[in-house]
Amino acid sequence: MGILDSINVGASALKAQGLRLDTHAKNMANVDTPNYVRKIPILNDANDLSFSSVMGEMQTGMFTSSGVTYLKGGVTFTGVVEDPNLGEKLYKPGHPDADKDGYVRASNVNPMVEMADAMLAQRAYEANLALINITRSMAMKAVEIGK
């Protein structure tokens, strides 16, 4: 893995963690919105790490480290899924979102969980930013040595 590869890994993680933070912010904004269902962000490896994919890469790369995808790294934000746990039913017959029986579902967003998840995403973002800065300084030192 070269210097540019490690910067690309950090950049993909920055993008994914930024989108993860956006998802948690939207959840926090809708903590009191009736019928809102919490969204859970999904992050995945940027490469296909199935057995057949890795074996195919190893066969075509003749077991060299440059040809193996699992040494390249990266992360992607693949979307969100809705939390399967529903909010409690509240009896509000005059509410515009009420069902035929007069019930409205409360939001299932727990602010404490969202804050903790947002803090984790922020720290992961900061760690990846540090990775890029350290890699950049290593590259600069290498240029200075070459002078």
- Helical/strand content category: alpha+beta
**Count of folded domains:** 2
Count of helix runs: 3
DSSP strand tally? 4
CA radius of gyration is: 22 Å
Oligomerization state of this entry? Answer: single chain
Low-confidence regions: none
Task: Summarize the SSE layout with pairings.
Elements: H1 3-29, E1 39-45, H2 51-61, E2 75-82, E3 89-91, E4 103-105, H3 111-146
Antiparallel strand pairs: 1-2, 3-4
Could you name the key traits of this structure?
elongated; alpha+beta; single chain; 2 domains; about 15% strand; about 150 residues; two-stranded antiparallel ribbon; 3 helices; 4 strands
What would a concise description of this structure say?
The chain is of the alpha+beta class and 147 residues long. The chain has three helices and four strands; from the N terminus they run αβαβββα.
What does this structure look like?
With 147 residues, the protein is of the alpha+beta class. It has two domains: 3-30 and 39-81 and 109-146, no CATH class; 83-108, no CATH class. It is built from three helices and four strands, in the order H-E-H-E-E-E-H. It has helices at 3-29, 51-61, 111-146; strands at residues 39-45, 75-82, 89-91, 103-105. The strands form two sheets. Strands 1-2 form a two-stranded antiparallel ribbon. Helix 1 runs antiparallel to helix 3. The radius of gyration is 22 Å and the shape is elongated. The relative contact order is 0.22. The mean pLDDT is 86.
